[in-house]
């Protein structure tokens, strides 16, 4: 999907906010219809029946009838797809959309262009024999950095093109989506980008993801996701303090919360930009990219409450504040987005390696000992004395696919044991024990 920043005029912005309200209103009506359904009641209406009901509602409701019918029908189509995804893709039930949170609408292209097959031959209608005409978004390029797209009821709305790369070209799409968040308008064209070609050298890279170092590569490089500066974080705290002291439901409180949200959105934009550039680099420079398999949803779950057995109704300390800080640190690194975008750009060339023992295994001899991990940054093997950065050592194990392998027994002649306390204890072993078996 190609996403660009939009710069509408004040009148265009007001009209697009009206489109957002209409789309949200229609979506919530569809949610209410399906929430009313029970097993003993008649089946909830489908997309075709809802479109017929929308026509009647537009006739009876002047506010809804003043809006664009295509925008409202696309909201119903989005709901139908979300409803089907609940059964086909395992997503949850479509939920309510809220004002100031879910601001957006989808527009289908009005231009008609001929469609062609993958081999370049024209698509023909089986009954009439005529060439199939598909939809296309009406978009024009003004100059090297600016373009404009036609939005229903708003006319031509300008958006900013990228300086170089795929974002500098005019997108060719059938639909686009307009969103408004944190005071910024964006347009996203539904374009499926082609995969990034690998170098063809067979080179393999392993990536260890962490909080201190976002991505440690097996070739020794360390990549960090950009964060907010110290001054920007101080500004967020200042706006949050002012919002807390402002009267309830006042304009001042809303304005301070909006200023803090803009700064947080800036951090999210930097994280997404870094993930896009890093995933492109990985897909272009390496043939096989290996990540450690992490369950981020479970890792960032909040700490469970611990009831106090001596005082019913009271709870013991469970480190909730520290766990919440760790969760924020993990989510700020963009682990999941980096893995997802790399998989999109290098399909079939991204592998997941089980995470257990990747940070405890020595990449030189294969010895596993928790005492070898001195701290977050230092790794010193208790068997062979190999010294390396801990994150780099783990990434080398990931690149070799040595993850999730059970700790070998001592009688097997390889690996090691990890005692509960004290240094690792080893018994005399034959000479061939030192040869890596993994």
Can you give a write-up of this model?
The structure is a single chain. The chain has 438 residues and is α+β, with helices and mostly antiparallel strands. It is 35% helix and 18% strand. It has ten helices and 18 strands. It has helices spanning 10-35, 47-60, 62-65, 69-88, 230-245, 251-285, 296-299, 320-331, 335-345, 390-399, and strands spanning 2-6, 104-108, 111-114, 133-136, 139-141, 146-151, 155-160, 175-181, 184-189, 204-209, 215-217, 222-223, 288-293, 306-307, 315-316, 350-354, 378-380, 387-389. The strands form six sheets. It has a five-stranded mixed sheet with strand order 12-11-10-13-16. Strands 1-9-8-2 form a four-stranded antiparallel sheet. Strands 5-6-7 form a three-stranded antiparallel sheet, with no helix packed on it. Helix 2 runs antiparallel to helix 4 (69-88). The protein is globular. The relative contact order is 0.09.
What is the tally of beta strands? 18
Instruction: Give the strand line-up of the largest sheet.
Output: 12-11-10-13-16
| Fraction in helix | 25-40%
Mean pLDDT: 85
Tell me, what's the shape?
Answer: globular
Task: Estimate what percentage of residues fall within beta strands.
Answer: 15-25%
Structural class given helices, strands, pairing? Answer: alpha+beta
Strand/helix succession = EHHHHEEEEEEEEEEEHHEHEEHHEEEH
Which segments are poorly predicted (pLDDT under 50) over 5 or more consecutive residues? 409-438
Terminal Cα span: 41 Å
